[in-house]
Amino acid sequence: MFAKLALLVTFVAGAAAHATFQELWINGVDQGSSCVRLPASNSPVTSVTSNDIACNANAASSKGVCQVMPGDSVSVEMHQQPGDRSCANEAIGGDHFGPVQIYMAKVSDATSAVGSSAAWFKVTEMGMPSMAPDYWATEVLNNNCGHFTFTVPSGIAPGNYLIRAEVIALHVASTLGQAQFYMSCYQINVGGSGTASPPTVKFPGAYSASDPGILINIYTQLNSYIIPGPTPYASTSPTVATTPWPTTATWNTALQPSTVPTAVPTVSGSAPPASSSSASTTTVASSTSKTTSSSTTKTTSSTVASSTPTSGSGTVAKYGQCGGTGYTGPTVCVSGSTCSVLNPCE
Q1: Cα–Cα distance between 112 and 247 in angstroms, integer?
Q2: The pTM is what?
Q3: Contacts of 299 (CB under 8 A, 6+ apart)
Q4: What is the C-alpha to C-alpha distance for residues 263 and 282, in angstroms, rounded to an integer?
């Protein structure tokens, strides 16, 4: 903890290490920035009463809507600078310790919905997974190249939704109004035939500046942490461990792409499209159509993991996985694409 305090002094004197949620993965397939509402800058929101607390400041709607199904594995990806996907850099640096949370809101049109008018339910959360020593969800995020994975709740009604991915940085939160909120909203369409309608909250409204998980001095020994906001729907928060938290990455950083797809990829067997956005994507690697992660999913997001390809026949979408150790899925590439090795793995 004293080491963290020393680093805080360095941070205050130096440049702020701000960050942005920028990309999305669905079942291990890289959607890039195709359906994210990218904020105008990587600076935080600090007022819990501002409309910016919903989807960030000056975050323009995207033309893209990513297709998911209940039970799908979804990973959000954060980095400090726009377009930077390097695992050599921390996703959020400068001792920006704090929780990671995921919300969803059902909307009539994901491309035009106003985040501050939407009704949000929390899908999952991670606060301080260990107190031996104090260890934060943002540190787990950094260990996994900025990826945080969750499962789309089973049974929720089909239609357009916004996903709200959030980090609350608490490094200067001992002063009222100084907690820093970093969030981005993603535009998705959920398929299936569910009927569930979880209880919801509003942004602004869900948080108070004096909440114990927002107004807090993290540079004392903490044996527990109260995560702000409502209880997650259909998932539980990891309990605070009394043993050190493992720092080994569970996201396969060897398969991390260096460039960003900017249009929603067409995935064989996905939910019907909900928008007219183009299905083309930018090149992720020269002569390469494999950009997936090989991590596996935990419903609580306490670790970030890759989905395993399902077996079956069919055509592999552009930038989908088409081979590799243990892969049992389709191997025929969509017209105009070829299957190439991105990174050899055991």
Answers
A1: 40
A2: 0.76
A3: 124, 150, 151, 235
A4: 7
192's enclosing H/E stretch is none
Which CATH number belongs to the domain containing residue 30 in this structure?
2.70.50.70
Phi-psi region of 160 (alpha: psi -120 to 50; beta: other; left: phi over 0): beta
Is residue 141 a contact partner of residue 129, using CB atoms and an 8 Å limit?
no
Please name which of 174, 169, 89 lies closest in space to residue 137, comparing C-alpha atoms: 169
What is the extent of the structural domain holding 339?
A: 1-346
pLDDT tens per residue, range 228-274: 999 999 898 889 999 999 999 999 988 899 999 999 987 544 444 44
The vertex-85 CA angle with 83 and 90, nearest 5°, equals 115
Longest distance between any two alpha carbons in the chain, whole Å: 58
C-alpha angle 143/144/145, rounded to 5°?
Answer: 100
Structural domains in the chain (count)? 1
Tokens describing residue 140: 């787990």
